[in-house]
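request received
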Amino acid sequence: MTDDDRVFKALADPSRRFLLDLLFARDGRTLTELESELEMTRFGVAKHLRVLEEAGLVVVRRSGREKLHFLNPIPIRQIHDRWIDKFTEQHVTALIDLKHTLEES
Amino acid sequence: MTDDDRVFKALADPSRRFLLDLLFARDGRTLTELESELEMTRFGVAKHLRVLEEAGLVVVRRSGREKLHFLNPIPIRQIHDRWIDKFTEQHVTALIDLKHTLEES
DNA sequence: AAGTTAGGTGACCATTTGGTCACCTGTCAA
DNA sequence: TTGACAGGTGACCAAATGGTCACCTAACTT
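response:
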């Protein structure tokens, strides 16, 4: 399996995306802490975190018996750069900003 | 199934990512034209294109009996914005640019 | 009108994937 | 040092996914 295969497969599951959302909101959480936010057993969450880790979307640091999880944004940016060139990026961000502006009013 | 579920599921398959690569290189191709680039039957390719279309990653325009396919970058940008804030974006792009600079030398 | 070309549909099968469980290792606290 | 706590492993099962095929419709060509 290639690197980018791992990244996209990892992102394909809603529980894993929710874990990334949690880490985006606040980094450095343990398995047990993350587990309490999902309706799933610890084993399920651990399995998902491992998939995210192997994809490089999450990096971990051990601290005693705890394992702290951090979000790594680099693979996400690389997805962006694969299909959006600098020129297109300007148009797309302008469109999305416009959409937000309209939704606020 | 939610919208973003469709997008991520669509991106999870290497053949579909390759189709996006092809459309990124050149837009507006037909099924038959795309089919010739993959080692797969027409039915397989058609199925993949439908998944991409339902995810909004590809938009189509009919022209007689032909169906032209175009890449839509907006969902890709939204993935980026979900986990990379403006502040982090600066660091990440700087890191990636640095990586490219180093690799050239 | 007849043949050809572009594309669509529903069924089918092999493989992968998400989630759980029984059981195990390592670390901290009283 | 004994128990509680944080996490890991391998097997297992139900459900989803990738790909093919037989068969179909619609549009262009001569």
